[in-house]
Design goal:
With 215 residues, this protein is α/β, with parallel strands linked by helices. The protein has eleven helices and six strands. It is 55% helix and 13% strand. It has a six-stranded parallel β-sheet with strand order 2-1-3-4-5-6, with helices on both faces. Helix 3 links the parallel strand 3 and strand 4. The longest helix is centred in the C-terminal third of the chain and has 14 residues. It is elongated and about 65 Å long. GO terms for molecular function: DNA binding. It comes from Streptomyces violaceoruber.
């Protein structure tokens, strides 16, 4: 199996080369950016490319954009996205065309090298290898944030909308304040409200809740 690796971290890149070579793979090229990936695939036409999402120059989505271009130009080359970032929208775009020879694994969730190698072989053979986290987020992406909440989270958010503090909510629900904080954190995540110093996530969650409740 011939492999191209696109990873901007030199340590990770060299580690993958050693791992794949030891498992009988032929690493025909290693690159550190999206342009290098496209050039390497055009030159070597490997069986599969291992691609990180965020690479130079902006470290945002260069890798995944290059992977989509790669698939358009070389549909026979498998693409295994191997990243620490779960981006279901990009996974959906990769799968939008010919949904074969595609993989998306999260670095921190690969607990055994054998699992990585097996996924790589599957993708190279035209199969699909998606981390369950990616699948779950792709499914939930089409649902309203309100529909993603558990029954208890809905109750907590409703009480937030009524102006109750976490302590007040805890007293009303006869639970610990820490339990309410965990529910609130889950609500913020499901409403795509990451921590930010300038934003009041509680207010934004309530506004979104009231807007969705009226729709």
């Amino acid at each position: 199996m011939r492999v191209v690796i696109a990873e901007d971290s030199v340590i990770l890149r060299e580690g993958m080369v050693e791992l794949l070579t030891a498992r009988g793979c032929d690493v025909v090229a290693t690159v550190g950016d999206g342009d290098g990936l496209l050039a390497a695939v055009a030159t070597h036409v490997p069986d599969v490319a291992v691609v990180d999402i965020r690479m130079p120059p902006t470290h945002t989505d260069e890798g995944i954009r290059a992977a989509i271009q790669l698939r358009a130009a070389h549909p026979g080359v498998g693409v295994l996205v191997f990243s620490q970032h779960a981006e279901p929208a990009w996974a959906a775009r990769l799968l939008a065309g010919e949904a074969s020879g595609i993989g998306y694994l999260l670095k921190e969730r690969v607990s055994a090298t054998a699992d990585f190698i097996e996924a790589l072989h599957r993708v190279a053979a035209g199969g699909v290898a998606l981390d369950p986290v990616i699948v779950s987020r792709m499914v939930n992406a089409g649902r309203r944030p309100l529909d993603r909440l558990t029954e208890r989270e809905r109750v907590v958010l409703d009480l937030m909308a009524q102006g109750h503090s976490n302590r007040s909510i805890a007293e009303l629900l006869v639970v610990s304040e820490r339990a309410v904080e965990k529910h609130a954190a889950s609500i913020f995540t499901k409403f795509d409200l990451p921590p930010a110093a300038a934003d009041n996530r509680r207010v934004k969650a309530v506004v979104a809740y009231l807007q969705e409740s009226r729709s």
